[in-house]
Amino acid sequence: MPEERESVAAASDRELAQTLDLLSERVARYRVDDLVLVYCNRAWAAEHLAEPDELIGLPMTDLLGPSELEGLHSQLARLGPSTPFLHDPTPRSAPRMVGRWVEWADRYLPGPTGAHILAVGRDVTERRVAEERLAQSEARFRDLADRSADIVWRVSVHPHPHLSYLSPSVERLTGWTPAAFGDRMDHLLEILDPQAREMALQALAGRPLADRFDARVRRADGSWAVLEMQVVRLPDGLQGVARDVTEMRQLQEDLAELALRDPLTGLANRRLLDILLAAALTRAARTSEPLVVTYVDLDDFKGVNDGYGHAAGDAVLIEVARRLEGTVRGADIVARLGGDEFIVVHEAVGDGLAAVGERIRTALAPPYTLPSGDVVTCTASLGESDTRGHLDAPSLFAAADAAMYAAKRARTGRERHTDG
User: Fold this and answer.
1) Given pLDDT bands bounded at 50, 70 and 90, which one contains residue 419?
2) Are 304 and 313 in contact (CB under 8 A)?
3) Which is more confidently placed, 243 or 131?
4) Please, which of 260, 370, 378, 413 could form a disulfide with 312 given CB 3.0 to 4.6 Å?
């Protein structure tokens, strides 16, 4: 019966209203033609500090604040039969609840007596506050990063790996402007050396990455910079600081080189000689090829130093080093022990064992032209030992040293000592 159906419908409407009153979302319904409110739940009314019955029948223009009215008119301009649902992504401030923010979604409801709008608002204050704090934090980060002497960078991996931030200092340190990199990774990967490029690709793939490492980067002028990278992994990518350590690394290399090289001649010093000879002896034992150690001592060097000065003496030592290097191949070693004493190590000499010392003596025989233009001669005494007697490094040195002094005493210029 009609009366019964109406009763059931009324009961259903009451149950729906009671259910809507339990929601934390704001729910309101108003007419399109005059914007009069025809329904609101308790959450919507509470936002206006009233009961629903006190608000129904009032125009929305009297109930909403400027921000919400702006959103309402924006939604109405687009809602209609062809666009029945719209979500307004911009949170609007609640008019009578200071500090609260609401996000709205609206549905267009056509009807025989005119169209209505069903509006549902969700309190997003906590999200809004978090976003504002994040924005403030990001602003502080960018302010500090923009002022940093180091390069500060951030890479995000979604929707694709891209540079989401690069500090202006990149131009001063590399010559590349931030604009040259764009938001993609292509240019960055192109200017990294192969090892650093592979590390970057591994990191983007989510693989473990060292907290601190060096990366070589090609500058805009074609030269290379060494950047010390400090990296932290973020939920959406990577963030790091790059410091230019090019000069520092070069200095460290120079210091390491000085620790292993004679500063005057550039030859190996005793420390490097010990390292290289140990490796050479291992190879000789493996291949059964003889290894020859030649001790070289200049006979007339003191006269050059005393007669022409230390600069002349240095010039002779440098030329001796150059000539000795001309007698060796590949893995052979030339070292300066100090003063006018040198060591030459020849590997895998085979049948040419007897010719090693002769090559050295011949190389050192020609006169030396000093910076002053004077020409001097400077003979050398040689002592040799070899591995045919299975000698270790100390024994090889001792035998060659003894042979050299014997040659000097005899003034023959050369004596061989082997334990073969």
Assistant:
1) very low
2) yes
3) 243
4) 370
Nearest residue to 374 (alpha-carbon basis) of 299, 303, 297, 322: 303
Identify which of 198, 209, 355, 213 has the alpha carbon closest to the alpha carbon of residue 292. 355
pLDDT in tens, 26-76: 899 999 999 999 999 998 898 888 899 999 999 999 988 888 888 888 888
- Per DSSP, the residues of 24-44 read SSEEEEEETTT-BEEEE-HHH
Asked if 345 and 296 count as a contact pair (C-beta separation under 8 A), the reply is: no
CB 13 within 8 A of CB 29: no
Q: What is the pLDDT of residues 254-268, one digit of tens each?
A: 877 778 999 999 999
Distance CA(53)–CA(39), nearest Å, equals: 9
Phi-psi region of 339 (alpha: psi -120 to 50; beta: other; left: phi over 0): left
Element (H, E) at 131: helix 125-147
Beta 162-166 vs 151-156: how paired, if at all?
Answer: antiparallel
Spatial contact of 55 and 37, defined as CB atoms under 8 Å apart: yes
Per-residue pLDDT of 354-372, as tens digits, reads 688 888 999 999 999 999 9
Confidence at residue 131, expressed as pLDDT on a 0 to 100 scale = 78
Q: Which two tokens stand for residue 236?
A: 């959406």
Tens digit of each residue's pLDDT (9 = 90 or more) over 384-411: 998 886 678 999 999 999 999 998 888 7
**Residue with the two structure tokens 């995000």:** 156
**Dihedral angle, C-alpha 259, 260, 263, 266, nearest 10 °:** -160
Full set of structural domains in the chain with CATH: 18-125 (3.30.450.20), 148-248 (3.30.450.20), 261-416 (3.30.70.270)
Instruction: Name the phi and psi angles at 264, rounded to 5.
Output: -80, -50
Q: Which of 62, 53, 57, 64 is nearest to 88 (CA)?
A: 64
Distance from CA of residue 158 to its chain's centroid? 20
Nearest-angstrom CA–CA distance, 308 and 125: 89
Q: What is the distance between the alpha carbons of residues 97 and 47, in angstroms, rounded to a whole number?
A: 6
